[in-house]
Structures are given as C-alpha cells and as structure tokens.
Amino acid sequence: MTQKIRVLIVDDFADTRESIAKLLYFERDIEVVGSAGDGQQATQLAKELRPDVILMDINMPGMDGIAATEAICAAVPECEVIMMSVQGEPDFLRRAMLAGAREYLVKPFTGDELAGSIRHVYELASDKRARLAAALKPAPAAPVAEPEPGTSGHMIALFCPKGGVGRTTVATNMAVALRTLTGKKVALVDCNLIFGDVAVMLNLPTNTTISDLIPNIRSLDKEALDRILVEHSSGVKVLLGPPRPELAELVTADHLRTILSQLKAHYDYVVVDTPPTFEDSVLGVLDLSDQILLLATLEMPAIKNVKLFLEVAEALHYPQEKLTLVLNRADSVGGILVGDIEQNIRFKISASIISAWQVMTTAVNQGVPVVISQPDSAVAKNLLEVARLVMTPADAAAVLERSSTTANGSRNAKAGRGLGKFRLSALTPFASRKGSN
Questions:
Q1: What gap in Å lies between CA 207 and CA 338, rounded to an integer?
Q2: Is the dihedral of CA 395, 159, 331, 367 positive or negative?
Q3: Above 90 in pLDDT, residue 407?
Q4: pTM of the entire predicted model
Q5: Whole-angstrom Cα distance, residue 393 to residue 386?
Q6: Residue 336: CA atoms inside 13 Å, Cβ hemisphere, count?
Q7: Can you give the pLDDT at residue 406?
C-alpha cells in the first residue's frame, strides 16, 4: 500500500480546521494526523507527529503563522508548510515564502486546489526527505563509488537593454542548436522573472519553476535541480521563470548566483535569457557569464541602448572577448546600414539573423523552435551559425570536422540528431570580427 501524505492542520478557528479536514476526507493518499489552534501548539505537535505537510494559517493570536513556520522549519526540517490566508497581497506571500513556506493558498479554496497543492509540495520535498534519511545512517567505512567529476560549464547570457528584439526566440533556438550539434548537456534558464516566455516558446508545462528552489536554496545540489528542471524533447533542460509575476521578487540576485553556479558545475552549456534591465539580478548574471550575446536590431532605440550598454560594460571592466554582438532581423526594410551601426557604436557585428516573419511566427505559436520545425530555412541556418559562434573552441572544431566529413559524403547521424533534413555542410567556418576601432 502506498504511504499516505500525513497532514497537520493549523488554524485558530475550530470550524475552519474541521472544514479543511472534510475537504481531505476522501483523498486516499492524504491523512490528517492532527490539528492545532495556534502557532505554539503547532510547533509542539510538529515535533511530536512529524507530519509531511502542515497547513498553516498566517494570522493567529500569540505566535502567528510566520513565526510558527520559522520555528518548525528550524526544528523539524522534514516538514513542509503551506501557508493559508484570506489576504492575497504580495507582501503576505513574500513573508510566507521567506519564513520557509513552500506554497501560499488564498482562502477560500476548493478541495481539488488543496489536495493538488499538498501533493505538489510533498513531491518537491522528496529529495530533501531522502537526504535527511541518508544523514541519519552511519557513514560507511569507505566510499562505495567514485564521485562524478565536476563540469566547468560555459555560460552564455542573451541580453539587450531594449525589449522586443527577439532575445527569447534566439535563446531557445540557440540552446536547442547547441544540444543538437554538440550532444553536450545544455541548460536553458528563464531569468525574465516577471514576464518570461521560455515556457511558451518551447510549449512546456509550468508545474515546477525557479520559485520551487528558493525555500531550500542553502542546500541546493544537483538532485534538487534535476527535480525542478523541465526536459524539452530536444534534451535541453529548462529552468522556467515563476508562474506568477508577484513571485519574482522572492528570487534575489544572490539566489540567481547560487542557482547559476550550480548549473555551471553540472552542465556543459548554460544559456540564460535575461530581461532588458540593469537591475542587480541581471548584472549578477552578466558578471557570472563567460559570454554575453548582445542582441540588436536595425532601429535607433535599440542601437542607442546597445551603445550605452557597451559603455557600461567597459566601466565594469568586461573583457572585449566576453561580448558578442549579433544583429537580429538584419534584412528589415528601412533599417540602418550595418556599417553605420558599427561606426557609431565602435563595435563589430559578429553575425546576422534574417527576419523570416512568417516562419518565426508559426514556430512561436506552435511552441517548436525553428531549428527543429524549419531546419532548412535561412533563419534556422543563421541561428545555427550563432550557436556555433558561442561554442567552446573544442566543440566548434569538432562540429566543423563533422561538417567536412558530411560534405565528403559520410554523414554522422548522431551529430545531426533532431535537425531533420538540415545539412551540417551548410555551416561554414566563421572568424570573429569583433573589436573596437
């Protein structure tokens, strides 16, 4: 028989406790093991009963739900807390999450919402329970296996200080192309925490997001990441942005640095989609990145903002080789000449991507990257060239060698996996042309 999820209900109104218990009565995998009327009693019962999940009202006399949650998380770390409140304001949500709560339910809620939240929280905490159980076992006299060697991943941040230039489209296609061409481990992170679109672009469910990592950020490891990352059909592992805009403020710059550092330690490539701001969290991402792919379009506002960013990058002492300028929608009618742009911003454009409005719109609406849906299109080949541009030298050389072999009639199916009919021979050697005048 499957083990039931043991639940403790905490609310200062007896009628509310009884109503919640009734909502869970017919859930075969959930068992109410006790109830408490205040935070102090809840803390004591948590120590005695060791429930899996605690449903905690935020406002109670004496020790309120915030203080009780902090005390329980410290004394009984295996317990997960779901905060309940009639208030849905962001401030209450923030306080609850910072205290250690895993989820926040606004009253009134349905039985399905309550049971679904309990199961979700319980599933997310399974890795923590396993670690705690392992910690209670005596250490073996000698290690039974060699630890997996670490990976020093290559992190690329997609950035432009102006919105609407196609960062997310390029980021998703580039991540898929890197995975497909190299066969290496690739992670894609949506750092546009308020209005991120990576999930839409890749047609992915948002059951787990970056918000789920925050309560256990101090003990973050590969296992915890693996439970939250969503796998795309291409093999790219995706860390999605928060499901609601108000959850964005719970993810701080320090949180992002911790998460991205862990990803770099376990993935060969980490592609990060960033918002068009200079907030501390974004600057932290840019600092940590090995390469910044700066995206521009043939419009004066975009060019002006790119020029301003280049001045900021110089002030931050970013080395010139860290920056790669790519022109998106490079064939737009009425656009400024490429030579004029380079002369104005004193920086060379390393690659260009054509517009292909109809192809790209169809790919976005279908949630399938164009490098998969239309691999023979000119825009897909442009995006693949950009992916090759950000590869490590060793991987770029390996892809070029396979391309030459393909041109000689010996196709390597593994190298081309997921690209449909795209011919690797279409990739030509690309020499970086960036540099200041």
A1: 43
A2: positive
A3: no
A4: 0.66
A5: 14
A6: 19
A7: 64
Give CA 208 to chain center in angstroms.
10
Per-residue pLDDT reduced to its tens digit, 281-324:
898 999 999 999 999 988 888 888 899 889 888 888 899 999 99
How many Å apart are CA 276 and CA 164, to the nearest integer?
9
227 in Cβ contact with 201 (< 8 Å):
no
pLDDT given for residue 130 in this prediction: 62
Print the SS3 string covering the chain: CCCCEEEEEECCCHHHHHHHHHHCCCCCCEEEEEEECCHHHHHHHHHHHCCCEEEEECCCCCCCHHHHHHHHHHHCCCCEEEEEECCCCHHHHHHHHHHCCCEEEECCCCHHHHHHHHHHHHHHCHHHHHHHHHHHCCCCCCCCCCCCCCCCCEEEEEECCCCCCCHHHHHHHHHHHHHHHHCCCEEEEECCCCCCCHHHHHCCCCCCCHHHHHHHHHHCCHHHHHHHCEECCCCCEEECCCCCHHHHHHCCHHHHHHHHHHHHHHCCEEEEECCCCCCHHHHHHHHHCCEEEEEECCCHHHHHHHHHHHHHHHHCCCCHHHEEEEEECCCCCCCCCHHHHHHHHCCCCCEEECCCHHHHHHHHHHCCCHHHHCCCCHHHHHHHHHHHHCCCHHHHHHHHHHHHHHHCCCCCCCCCCCCCCCCHHHCCCCCCCCCCC
